[in-house]
Write a structure and sequence with these properties.
By secondary structure, this protein is α+β, with helices and mostly antiparallel strands. The chain has one domain (25-179). 41% of the residues lie in helices and 26% in strands. It has a five-stranded mixed β-sheet with strand order 1-2-3-6-7. Strands 4-5 form a two-stranded antiparallel sheet. β2, α2 and β3 form a beta-alpha-beta unit. α2 (54-76) packs parallel to α4. The N and C termini lie far apart (78 Å). InterPro entries: DUF3016. It comes from Shewanella holmiensis. It holds the Pfam family DUF3016.
Length: 180
């Protein structure tokens, strides 16, 4: 009889573990006029940490990127407008390489061969009304030319890629909307 209870308990526990793994978390970060939903970060192409707890690294990346996007969005969007993004993939600049015990963590090797990439959908809201929306799949092949600058802010290649998108894609379309 005790064996049956153990089997049932084992099955229940394993089902809970499977359900836990199946539950996908999609963190949401907000800063100023920007709201970003990071959809299923575990499936992202490359958001690996080199020497930091992975969950802490991801949270730092999400918060930093949202803050950086907000700085540029505040200059690009008009008053009463908000940017809402749903990020479905991220590939950080560089590639992770194992150190085989030479250092405590892996190393991120940054070369032209490994540009930053980001895939997302977005909406620009004015009040509650959607005035602009789209899907983007960004890649910054020229990121190495801009990395030689003295600025050492975290995630600068990814931030610059989004800033350029806001300047080259969003701003002209918003100005066109205003003139119509």
């Amino acid at each position: 009889m005790n064996m049956n209870y153990l089997l049932i308990a084992g099955v229940l526990i394993s089902n809970l573990a499977i359900a836990d793994e199946a539950e996908v978390t999609s963190p949401v970060t907000e800063n100023g006029i920007v709201k970003v939903e990071w959809q299923d970060p575990a499936s992202y192409r490359d958001i690996k940490s080199s020497n930091e707890l992975q969950s802490r690294f991801e949270n730092r990346f999400f918060e930093t990127m949202t803050k950086n996007i907000n700085k540029k969005a505040e200059k690009t969007l008009k008053p009463n407008q908000k940017l809402v993004m749903q990020v479905s993939d991220v590939d950080l600049a560089g590639d992770m390489r194992p150190t085989f015990g030479a250092t405590p963590g892996d190393l991120r090797v940054v070369k032209e061969l490994y540009p930053p990439r980001m895939t997302f959908t977005y909406q620009i809201l004015e009040g509650e009304q959607v005035i602009m929306a789209g899907d983007e799949k960004l890649t910054d092949m020229g990121f190495m030319q801009r990395l030689n600058r003295v600025n050492e802010r975290p995630f600068r290649a990814e931030t610059t890629m989004i800033e350029n998108w806001l300047t080259r894609t969003v701003a002209p379309q918003l100005n066109q909307e205003m003139s119509n």
